[in-house]
Each structure stands twice: as structure tokens, then as C-alpha cells.
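Lab notes, practical 5.
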Amino acid sequence: MAQFVLVPGIWLGGWVWRKVGVRLAAAGHSTWTPTLTGLGERSHIVGPWVGLETHVDDVVNVIEREGLDELVLVGHGYGGTVATAVADRALERVARLVLVASSVPQDARSVIDVAAPWLRSLVDAAPKTTEEARVLPIPLADELGRHVAVSDMGDADRRWFWANAAAHPVRTLERPVTLSGAAADVPTTYIRCLADEMVTGPVRQLPIDWEVRSVRSGHWPMVTRPDELTDVLREAAEAAIAEPQSMATMR
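Output from the prediction step:
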């Protein structure tokens, strides 16, 4: 059975993977859902020192402390940049990288440099402070709905989702990510969210060697389409397990 590390996106904590985690566990897989510093149950840990590298360290520390190997590393949205940087630093531990509705991270560029323009608009509109510890407030659902597909959430899911969301440290979005290019050697699956892409447009310039899959969801399939997303993740794990051990060693 596979080991999954599931990294959440903007405003979210490990809690957002609850439905998927239950389904993966029922299939016999092990899951870890780290909450990044300053978010979720760690929203009280915030300051000018919280940056993208802090979030990368959060995930690397879980992998190392838990002794995880040959894992499937999944990142959603902003978490896709975090997961890619983790794979870059912990290459020998990652059997497969899965990006869900994420932009394609690029060395020396920030998240808002490569993300859809709506994210920069939200960051630019965030309240200015005299401290570096600016946060991106939780947007109103109708405001966010102009940028990403949220309409596939039912009322109960929507209440749960926004009740648990937290303001996101802006510095993590503005500082460039450092990538050596090592993560390019990790087999990668990209999961498109089709309803979301009707609003945002398709992600362009995906590397030609990536596997591309689709789910019929808005931006948060782990909430609205957990069965469909879990099936794709299980197939990604099967591909990782089937990969010859010698290939994993060569990376």
C-alpha cells in the first residue's frame, strides 16, 4: 500500500483533505495531511518570518520525522508549489508528485508571478500594514466565485469550508521559490479541475512528460468530488508502486 502526503492550498489546513483521507485509509493506504504554519489549527503561529521556505520545511519535517519513503506527494493549488519544492529537496523519498489545480512552479519566481492574475489582484487588494506579516484575508464567496469555480459546493460543505479557512501569509506568495530542477526527475501527474477551468482557463505549458488527468469539479475536488479525486490518486499510487525500484534509485 502507498504512503500519501497531502499538502493544502491557500487559506486551508490539513483538515480540507478529510474526505479523501478517509477514502484512502479505507483502501489500505496511509495518509499524512500537514497543516502549514499560520493556517488551520496553526493559525496562531504567524509572523514576518513565515514564508514559502517555512511551509516547505513544514512538509519536509513531517516526511523525515515519520521516516516516509517512496511516497506519493500531492499538492493542491498553492500547495503544488510547496510540494514541488519539497520534492526538489527530498528527491530520494518521493516516488510520484501529484499537482491538483496548481500553476506550474518555476525557479526564482513567486507563486503570484506564475499563478492566474486573480490571485495577484486579491494580494494587491489585501490590507497594507507596516509589518511584513501581511495576510491575505478569506474572501467573500461571491468575490472568489468570480475567479474560481465554487458553485459545486453544497451548503453544508460551504459552511464547513469557510468556517475552517484562515487568512494566508502573503509573504509565502510573494517570495520566489528556489528549485534546483531535481524534481523534474520525479514522475508527475497533473489533475485538471474541469469546472474550475471553465472560469480560470486551462493551465498552459504543462511539461510533455507529465501524466494529465481530469476531475469534473470546481477548484476544491477534495471537498466536492472526493470519490473521483481519490480514484485518480489511487491510480497515481499504483503507477508509483509499479515503477521499477532501479529507476527510483537512479533519481
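Observations recorded by the TA: The radius of gyration is 17 Å. Residues 226-242 form the longest helix (17 residues).
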